[in-house]
Specification:
The chain has helices at 26-37, 40-62, 74-104, 118-124. With 134 residues, the chain is mostly helical. It has a domain at 49-106. The radius of gyration is 23 Å and the shape is flat. The N and C termini lie far apart (81 Å). The mean pLDDT is 86.
Length: 134
Amino acid sequence: MVKDKKTKKVKVMTVPVEKPEAPTGIGDVVAALNALTISRGWQIITRVLDENIKYLEQAILEKQDPLTKITLTDEEVEGLRYKRGLNIEVKNTPNKYIKVVEDTGVIPEDFDPFYKTAKEMRKAEGLPEREEPK
């Protein structure tokens, strides 16, 4: 066994870092979310989401998987529409939360960025409303 003389042993020191507390003031919450939306990390996330949305839109329009060229059923296309909507909702979550905080002046503890009903999802997708069963 030959040892490389250029290799040095390095002692790694770790320092515990406290987890920062979430801001509690309205101005602090808005500032933190604005900082998030311009961070490099969020730019990576939005780029990934944009690529997902673009892929899903192509699959929905062509009713075919863009990579495999496999034809999709109507049920699969509906699933992709739903998934596209979720990608858009995730992408818009910081701005939606900022808007809620600014509009209400309250920091909501129970905030769900996703569609609550199928009707909301269809509206966001630009699809016509379905008739309610009687």
